[in-house]
Amino acid sequence: MKNPFLLPSLCLLMLLQLLSCKKDDEPTPPPPTMTPTELAASMEDILDETEVPGFAISIVKDNAIIFQQAFGYADTEAQKPYTNQTVQHIASASKTFVGAAVVKAIEQGYFTLDTDINDICLLTLLIPNNPILASLSNTW
Length: 140
Prior knowledge:
Distance between the termini: 71 Å
C-alpha cells in the first residue's frame, strides 16, 4: 500500500531546503590600511577597553621595523611606563613557542623524536640515579 502523503511531503521538504539556502555573500574586504597614528589610536582604545596594564608592538616588514610603540604601564602602582625595552615574563606561554619551534625543527630535519637530547644541547644533561628516569635516558 502506497502512502499518498509521501511524495508531497518529500517535495515540501526539498522546497524548504532550497528556500533555506542563502546566496553566498560577497567576501568581507580587508580593513583599510591604517596610518601609524590610526594604529596607535586603535591600540589606545584596546588598552582602555581591557584590563591589560601595558604592552608594546613592533611591526616588521622586509627586515625593517615600520612601527614600534609601547602603551600603558609596566608597573601601574609606580606609574612606570611600558617601553619597547620592557621585559615581559611570559611564563607558561613559552611552552607554546618551544613546542612550535621543536615541531618546525623536526619538519626541517634538524633532529627526530628519537635523537639523543645530548646531541642537540650545548650542555650535557645528566639523568639522576632514578631507575625510572634512567630507563628513559636511552630514548632521549
